[in-house]
Design brief:
The protein is an alpha/beta fold. The chain folds into four domains: 2-144, 3-Layer(aba) Sandwich (Rossmann fold), CATH 3.40.50; 162-273, Transcription Regulator spoIIAA (2-Layer Sandwich); 275-395, 2-Layer Sandwich (Transcription Regulator spoIIAA); 396-453, Beta Barrel (OB fold (Dihydrolipoamide Acetyltransferase, E2P)), CATH 2.40.50. The protein is built from 13 helices and 19 strands. The strands form five sheets. It has a six-stranded parallel β-sheet, with helices on both faces. Helix 3 links the parallel strand 3 and strand 4. Helix 1 packs parallel to helix 5, helix 8 (233-241) packs parallel to helix 9 (261-269) and helix 9 (261-269) packs parallel to helix 11.
Length: 455
């Protein structure tokens, strides 16, 4: 890799001004993290970074493949770049990420979108300097969609997109093969990073003043199973908790089948871990969970929730829910509403089932109508509004720890997230973005909290 970096640097050094790269990452936080490493490699090769696509010498779309609609959007964006390429013949256009890991997608891009110069999948990050060199030196389309690599690149310095929040991957890939999900096919099998590499990266972020660190993986509480000396996720969390610094820890996403009492105990007992758990439910019907290949039951799921609430009575939960999985009935759907009412989620991320070619669920003859799916989704959102309106009131009068992230719509107001991952708004005479403040909650809405900064 170093040899090709040097070759690219030599080519770029002949230019009057350093070339600029524009990169847009779609999809999950893991993709965002990959994008930061891509920019890290490109800056080492001599590229600058720009947020203006039209001034860039290289445009890279780091793609998502979870839904087919996401792929259609990318095709549209690539098509729009044809005119820009005609105006700037030396412009390099690149496609990478999960979408680019699929052979049929690559063939379509090569055949239909001739303006694309660079295509690389999720296992080819180390090969980026070679690919860029091939494009620059031979003006040919460079492609690498290596199917699998157990190697995890550890010597790439990321160009972080934020100054106070950072994502740190702890593992890559997934072994779960949920019947609706394409991720295992484009991200490969589970591979865990060595604990020391993770700890070293977090120490650097802590020294640099980062206030929140999000641990990333397709199934974080499956961490450590591929290590020569196994370390489970709970142990990793406790080691991270011991690192000096004023930062908090979040993680995304755990899987209910691997959630244990030890895992909950770790969250409760470690002061740096936010007291919130995003625990994807997907469905409140055991029949649908089995068809989804989720490998847990509603009863198993509720055991984890009940244990967490036995440790902290108002422990915060959020979740993912799929409405209208193939052949779901209203009785199945009512099971989901029942779980929602029992758990009282602070937030849900809900989706109407979207057929994903390449998955087992896509082969099911679905007899559930789109009309029913839409009706159920509206009912689900109404139930969640009722839950949030009532359950958020528990915070009124309490003091929460809030990391402020942005200005609100109202002048002089700022918003951020509490440890419970709930939006909190507060007024301040000075800019408090990137700062953690104690906020006394004065009012609860069904989507956020409002309060007064006390220090």
């Amino acid at each position: 890799m170093t040899d090709y970096k040097n070759k690219v640097q030599k080519i770029l050094s002949l230019r009057e001004t350093p070339p600029l790269c524009y990169l847009h990452s779609f999809g999950c936080q893991q993709n965002v993290s990959d994008g930061e490493k891509i920019l890290g490699l490109l800056t080492e090769m001599g590229y600058g970074v720009t947020s203006d696509m039209f001034s860039a010498d290289m445009i890279i779309y780091n793609t998502c493949a979870v839904r087919e609609n996401a792929e259609l959007k990318i095709y549209g964006l690539i098509g729009n770049l044809k005119h820009l390429k005609e105006q700037k013949p030396d412009l390099i256009i690149g496609i990478c990420g999960c979408m680019a890991q699929q052979e049929q997608v690559v063939e379509k891009i090569k055949k239909t979108y001739k303006q694309v110069d660079l295509i690389f999948g999720t296992f080819a990050l180390n090969e980026l300097p070679r690919l860029v060199y091939d494009v620059l030196s031979e003006r040919k389309t460079a492609v690498d969609i290596t199917e699998y690599s157990a190697e995890i690149p550890e010597n790439i310095k990321a160009v972080r997109s934020g100054s106070f929040k950072a994502g740190v991957p702890v593992m890559y890939g997934c072994n779960n093969f949920c019947s609706y999900c394409i991720v295992p096919y484009v991200r490969g099998r589970e591979r865990s990073r060595e604990p020391q590499a993770i700890l070293d990266e977090i120490r650097e972020l802590s020294k640099a003043g980062y206030k929140e660190i999000m641990l990333l993986g397709q199934n974080v509480n499956s961490y450590g199973k591929t290590l020569e000396k196994p370390v489970n996720f709970s142990e990793l969390l406790r080691r991270i908790n011991e690192i000096d610094g004023d930062f908090k820890i979040r993680f995304m996403s755990p899987h209910p089948k691997d959630a244990t009492k030890e895992f909950i105990d770790t969250i409760v007992e470690c002061d740096k871990i936010c007291k919130h758990l995003h625990l994807p439910l997907q469905s409140g019907s055991n029949r649908i969970l089995e068809a989804m290949n989720r490998r847990y039951t509603v009863e198993k799921y509720m055991e984890i929730v009940d244990y967490a609430r036995s440790r902290i009575p108002d422990f915060s939960f959020s979740t993912d829910i799929i409405v209208g999985f193939p052949n779901e009935t209203y009785e199945d759907f009512k099971g989901t509403l029942d779980v929602m009412r029992r758990v009282k989620y602070d937030n849900i991320f809900s989706f109407i089932y979207s057929k994903r070619t390449g998955t087992k669920a896509a082969l099911i003859d679905d007899k559930t109508s789109d009309e029913d799916k839409g009706k159920w989704m509206r009912e689900l959102l109404e139930v969640q509004r009722e839950i949030s309106t009532e359950f958020f009131k528990r915070f009124e009068g309490r003091i929460l720890d809030v990391l402020f992230e942005a200005e609100s719509k109202n002048v002089g107001w700022y918003n951020g997230k509490s440890d419970e991952f709930i939006i909190v708004e507060a007024k301040s005479d000075v800019n408090i973005i990137g700062q953690r403040k104690k906020v006394k909650i004065t009012k609860a809405f069904n989507w956020a909290l409002q309060g007064e900064i006390i220090n």
